[in-house]
## 1
Amino acid sequence: MSRLRQWWLYLLSKRSEVAALDYKDAYMAKVIMDIHRLRSDKAQAMVPLHALHPIHRIDRESAQQATRARAQALAARREELLAHGRLDLAALTEIIPSVSQIKVVQDGERWLAFEGNGRLYAMREAFGADCALAVEVEEYRFGRPHKIQRRLRRVRRLNELE
């Protein structure tokens, strides 16, 4: 499938969510724009599933349906993936494809996912939130990360995750 078609289908799948946006979604969008604007570097990283934390809930029906489908796809290959010990980019792309990688910012001993929250919830459903399975992510880095970390924690509080 062409990259343009993939993005078009992605945008179409999100149209029902646009009408339900509220202030916390607007703040989250601003924080994500700041992450992209202020990052000093980004790199691939392998992070244990239990250390990956979402910044928002999956509370819209369309997103919940997609998350359930992804969890079922992962559960079908659960034993194979656990035996391998890692869920790398190739496996993620094959089993639960998306237009982007899971993107994170490290905050102490945890990594906050600002992109890929639905996939993260699906993995937690399929493997358990305390699973040590290594997941390949794209880590965004900052010279001085404190401001971005504080903003991501605020997004989590607005979504009642902290």
## 2
Amino acid sequence: MSIYVGNLSYDVTEDDLTSVFTEYGSVKRVQLPTDRETGRKRGFGFVEMGADTEETAAIEALDGAEWMGRDLKVNKAKPREERGGSFGGGRRNNNSSNRY
């Protein structure tokens, strides 16, 4: 299981998140996704812990808790949904004046 942690400060680091979740058990992995274009953190992250009981304890304790000036949203992470087959919204130029 993985834990979703939302409404994070953009200044949070993986070490910050690790130290908070270590209070509830062993942290195996922390991930803070960044925006592809800007490289800026996206305000949420994922934490994997050593045991389901540790993850449950962390979720119960931290969901709604204030941290770094924000109220955290903490719950079980849902599997990533596959996006549709679209590869962007680029327009094709179908102007008849471009034909030979």
